Here is the input.
Amino acid sequence: MYSSPGSGEVFVLNDGGEVDLDLGNYERFLDINLYKDNNITTGKIYQHVINKERHGDYLGKTVQVVPHITDAVQEWVMNQAKVPVDDDRKEPQICVIELGGTIGDIEGMPFVEAFRQFQFKARRENFCNIHVSLVPQPNATGEQKTKPTQNSVRALRGLGLSPDLIVCRSAKPIEMAVKEKISMFCHVEPEQVIFIHDVSSTYRVPILLEEQGIIKYFKQRLNLPIDDQPSDLLMKWKKMADRYERLLKVCSIALVGKYTKLSDCYASVFKALEHSALAINHKLDLMYIDSTELERSTEAENSVKYHQAWHKLCKADGILVPGGFGIRGTEGKLQAISWARTKKKPFLGVCLGMQLAVVEFARNCLNWKDANSTEFDPDTKNPVVIDMPEHNPGDMGGTMRLGRRRTVFKTENSVLRKLYGDEMFVEERHRHRYEVNPELTHCFEEKGLKFVGHDTEGNRMEVIELENHPYFVGVQFHPEFSSRPMKPSPPYLGLLLAATGTLNAYLQRGCKLSPSDSYSDLSDDSSPEKEFPSSETS
Here is the structure.
């Protein structure tokens, strides 16, 4: 599976690969684990070819886009298509390739040519080309326009690729007359035109595809050994989509960050919260709060923004401070963390959010007023968060600790350990270059801030929990990258449970996070109260 780079979130894979957020969508939907080589970029391909040329593999021949670049793309695809991506460690039967961008863009031309050649090497029975196109509907006329689709298909054919399926995206359901028009002008059968209109949730999309016969088409077109009937997994998706649409109770979470103007920057965080809310039968109300608007300086400049931001924070059921870099907005995040700690609001801090929770505790509970991270104040007398030993600031962008790492729980009396199924250790993905100073942890623990999880050597602090608080948890890793629609991330699930007042009851029942726990077969009269009591039990 492959994706082109885009804007928004940096998604981290198990092997430490930093990739486009589309690969995160693939991992979540398919419940698989991808690798950095699943992401092909122009830079990777050209570097690969240059290295081969320097090594003498081309025997002094002139290196050209065709055949050297196009051959490198095909070779990369063939190698990666054989790599297992799930727990059974078997070679995949199907490789999905996303050729991103717009047909005709100069950046994508070598890739288009590579797959024009590749279709003949793979042979027709092994190669299916799906073209995705937008069908706009101008408000002025309300008419659905097919001309953009016709033009893009014509351009694609001119480059040597003919679509087997044309998938049309639209805001509203597309009329049959439009389908027939696209079929006629694009030279495909009507059943080869698939419509995907905006739906209530992305969980409804697989059902929409199945209803249009896509399973039957793939079975015949690629001679796949699958049944015509929907699988058990698809039935679970249908139940989940039905469940999502009938949720009545709402849980509000305040996300306090500094990239709030582009929600894609927190795409995985949003999905992890949504997965957890759905698991406990609640609709998620996510309120984005720009952390700079919580700061005193904003009150002086724009008191309306300041009070609106604080109003959102105060009415939220839970507070989340995600990861990030840079000093801008950190004081606002510290204010939000202080509010969550003193008012006993459920709180989750991720990466930088955990580090700032330690800074806030040091300033207000240990009375170390100048406590800070060396990221923000290299000369602080109380460096409670420090550079990692291997951090090299001279390297462009610095060096980071990336990918899946093990976290060991050092005590059984940990809320997060119980949420993870009482496991002795967990493995989650990391992306950071600063961490809690291990030499000062005893000062925090004496005052009630416990470091309940650390790395295998015991030198890196991975999990914090505050005593006598409904839910005050910080994690150095990024659990949102491993969250799945039917397997919600434990730290995020804990936040939603605490925010809805059901955490203690859930823990006392000894519930473990698995598809059968979160998504059992639901009858029409099922209700949230049957699974999660509406109030805490002591």
Remarks:
- The chain has 20 helices and 17 strands.
- The mean pLDDT is 89.
- Residues 254 and 312 are 7 Å apart (CA to CA).
- Residues 249-355+406-426+435-531 form a domain with the Rossmann fold fold (CATH 3.40.50.880).
